[in-house]
Amino acid sequence: KPDQEVAISLAYKLYHLDGFKKTDIAPYIEKNNEFSQMVAEEYLQLFDFREMTLDQALRKFLLALALTGETQERERVLHCFSNRFQHCNPDIIHSRDAVHTLTCAIMLLNSDLHGKNLGKSMSSQDFITNLEGMNDGKDFPKDYLKALYHSIKSKKLEWAVDDEELQKSIMPMSEDTINITGTTDKGSPFLEVLHDHKAPTYKQGFLSRKFHADIDGKKTPWGKRSWKTFYAVLKGTIIYLLKDEYKPDKQSSEEAISVHHSLATKAAEYNKRPHVFRLQTADWRIFLFQAQSAEQMNSWITRINLVAAMFSSPPFPAAIGSKRKFSRPIYPATVSKQKEEAQLESHDSMLQSILDDLDDHQLNVPDKKSKAREFEEYKMKQEYFEYEKCRIETYVKLLKIKLKEGTDDLDKLEAQLFNTLEGEGCNLKKSHSSPSLNQEQVPVVKVKRNVSERRTYRKIIPSRHRKLI
């Protein structure tokens, strides 16, 4: 077939970088069409993974090309890699699906051990336990998993190009490019935040920002909770916090906050300042923002939630899930390119899954003889399911209204969109920081005591310069 010959020729040139860069390879092999699949198959045939461990082969592969694109596209590339590794090493792991499961587990383990935004690191035993029964219903050899764990822990996976070179190849510098510093998660290309200078600006204006909770909802230290004013720009799925008002030339931002899979709500119980809203991100950081008026606060809430609803990608398949130990899924930072109808369908499907999980969870309350750890995990799951229910319900309602109105004019949609969210904010049950935010008040009972019961014990110390009789 002519297409087969073209695919072979192109794959050879991609492998040997004949007229191509490493950042050019992925777009040719990650698409969901027949020709791209042929190129991918021929490209992987050029790799020799014989007598390599899975992590060694994966390191070699990731240094050969820059893994870019949407989550689904990157997963297709890893599928091709898994197929090739299993073909070269049929006696190590006996099925392609099991190799792919373990490949994804290694990628996420690398993020967990070396990433910035994943909280407490996974132990070797956790890694083994999480993969129980995932080798086609059987367990992977423990010694093999231990070797993989310690290999990744001692040396993180390296990508084909460094962050700066990758950013330049994807986002060429131009006059309207914002210079972002310190915002990339180097743990995994599935979680890195790419800054698209061509993305539309949905909202901008002055905001005061306060940290309320760090990653995984951990308490923010007292010294880092002060308010600070920025000029905020919601550009694409990122809020850039600038020192000065936005200008269409190179400008440095002090912070960049991705709003994928996030939720903005009124901070109704925060009464120290007016017009404050609360933003909870995908990694469960919590920020408080003060707008200049109630109208501006409502506008920010509506637009942040709408952007999150339109562009949050479906979650990456859970390769290292476990029924024994609960952990929240990791959501990809890549921007979804699905049409709004498909995006709505995806959110709706996820909502039904969350509702089913919540029902099952509430039917399995730990009994009184259970350990304290089981009660704590039950409470953690309950908080997660209720928050996810509220977040996804918000996405579904916003997208339904937007599709019904059939317009992209946010000024026209804004009032109607916000009215649907009025009074439906999610409440965080556990207060991590400011005492006036979402605090569960415990009644204090004051007891009057008799004068005779008020005893003061005072130690009598004689003066050194006084003669005692």
Verbal overview:
The C terminus is likely disordered. This protein has 13 helices and 8 strands. It is α+β, with helices and mostly antiparallel strands and 469 residues long. Strands 1-5-4-3-2-8-7-6 form an 8-stranded mixed β-sheet, covered by helices on one side.
Outline the secondary-structure elements:
Blueprint lengths: L1 H14 L6 H8 L4 H12 L8 H9 L8 H18 L7 H19 L9 H7 L11 H13 L8 H8 L7 E3 L20 E13 L14 E8 L2 E5 L8 E8 L4 E4 L9 E5 L5 E5 L3 H18 L28 H23 L9 H34 L4 H12 L48
Parallel strand pairs: 1-5
Antiparallel strand pairs: 2-3, 2-8, 3-4, 4-5, 6-7, 7-8
Helix pairs in contact: 1-3, 3-5, 5-6, 6-8, 7-8, 10-12, 10-13, 11-12, 12-13
How would you sum up this structure in a few lines?
With 469 residues, this protein is an alpha+beta fold. The chain has 13 helices and eight strands.
Distance between the termini: 118 Å
Outline the low-pLDDT stretches: 162-191, 317-323, 427-449, 451-461, 463-469
Largest sheet: 8 strands, mixed
> Which strand order does the major sheet show?
1-5-4-3-2-8-7-6
Helix fraction by DSSP (H/I, runs of at least 4): 40-55%
Binned strand content: 5-15%
General shape: globular
By secondary-structure content and strand pairing, the structural class works out as alpha+beta
